[in-house]
Amino acid sequence: MRRVAGLALAGLVLSGGAAAAQEPNLIFKKSTVWKFLTPDDKLAVYGIDDPLVDGVACHYTTPEKGGVSGMFGVAEEVSDISLACRQVGPIAFKGKFDQGDVVFREGRSFFFKRMQIVRGCDTKRNVLVYLVYSDKLIDGSPKNSTSTVPIQPWGAAADVPRCADYLR
Q: For residue 59, which of 27, 83, 42 has the smallest C-alpha distance?
């Protein structure tokens, strides 16, 4: 049993790659359920920048369990995660990407659950599409949230890149 758990943990660590290298910025936390003598349940709001697309930032809100299990970091977090992404400057692509490439990933439980933000391109409308979802090693979760970023001119720059030109 330990070997299976160790292999699962190693797989999660190794699958992190570049998407996991970015640390999210904590914006704020808000208590939602008061707990006596242990940490409260909270909603936490984080911000990240798209590592491949300059000028796009995403904010996501995720619940964080309190209580004894939350205090020791062994609580399995729920999959209710909301997402909002916006253009915050001129859009510039640093390279090519595939539909569904991972922008950010983090663990949501000690072993088996991950939260992922992935990116796509609506080529017809020139819109970046971001999807957040959680998955489990055993079975996935249908809970998800989507946000879109229409690529618009910014400041004096009149040229607007087309996301379709950067798809592999």
A: 83
Helix (H, G, I), strand (E, B) or coil at 18: helix
Q: CB of 46 within 8 A of CB of 31?
A: no
Residue 54 and residue 152: Cα distance in Å, rounded? Answer: 13
Give the span between the Cα atoms of 92 and 162, in whole angstroms.
10
Name the residue among 128, 35, 134 with its Cα closest to residue 81. 134
Q: Burial-class residue 166 by CB neighbours within 10 Å (0-12, 13-18, 19+).
A: middle
* Interval 75-131: pLDDT, tens: 555 668 899 999 999 999 999 999 999 999 887 565 567 889 999 999 999 999 999
What is the number of helices (H) and of strands (E) in the chain? 2, 8
